[in-house]
Design a protein that fits this description.
Length: 190
């Protein structure tokens, strides 16, 4: 099973991913979390990520694709599949993912787009920036991330629409209500 949780920065992917991964026994793979761990550990990957993340830009596709493939490959028998959070973020990443899955006669079951308006996204990220140490949750980087999302990531939607794997879920409201709506879509798709 491969489920993608998609949506703009600040839409609640991280929060919902944890709930989904637990309920459906999926391995939660968050490219943002992986990069933050690498940055904390000061690895070569982390050092190169820091520049992109601070500026709100995407890491180069080849680096991210290589990194992600390692994580999907390491198969854990106790898991029923993977939940991708923060990947794919470009059409090239989506193509690489689907090519990889095709090799084992698989395909993404569904991409769930968590819809939240821009005003709400900005206020959530500003709040998170005050509560945590995320280097990218400041007004200037937030603006850049939203621009990068519109220019480079939003197009992933049409890639999955063409495959008939795209669904949208309202990301406003109570966490448990949003989760309930996500579960309905997952159950239709598996
Ligand atoms: P967000 O809250 O914006 O969804 P993430 O935690 O998913 O944040 O990602 C933080 C940063 O990590 C991004 O702004 C980007 O620099 C980098 N990053 C994460 N995933 C990818 C990806 N798939 N491709 C390129 N860069 C990525």
């Amino acid at each position: 099973m491969t489920i993608i949780l998609f949506g703009p920065p600040g839409c609640g992917k991280g929060t919902q991913s944890e709930l989904i991964a637990e309920k459906y026994k999926l391995k939660h793979i968050s490219t943002g979390d992986i990069l933050r761990t690498e940055m904390e550990m000061g690895t070569d990957l982390g050092l190169s990520a820091k520049k992109y993340v601070t500026e709100g830009k995407l890491m180069p596709d080849d680096v991210i694709i290589g990194m992600l493939m390692k994580f999907i490959q390491s198969n854990d028998a106790s898991m029923k599949g993977v939940l991708l959070d923060g990947f794919p973020r470009t059409t090239a990443q989506a193509e690489a993912l689907e090519e990889k899955l095709t090799l084992s006669n698989k395909q993404t079951n569904v991409l769930i787009d968590l819809r939240v308006n821009e005003e709400e996204l900005i206020s959530r990220m500003i709040l998170r920036g005050k509560a945590t140490e995320r280097i990218d949750d400041n007004p200037e980087t937030i603006k850049k991330r939203l621009q990068v999302y519109a220019e480079q990531t939003y197009q992933v939607k049409s890639f999955y629409q063409k495959l008939n794997k795209y669904v949208a879920v309202n990301g406003l409201g109570k966490i448990e209500d949003i989760f309930g709506n996500i579960c309905i879509e997952i159950e239709k798709a598996i």
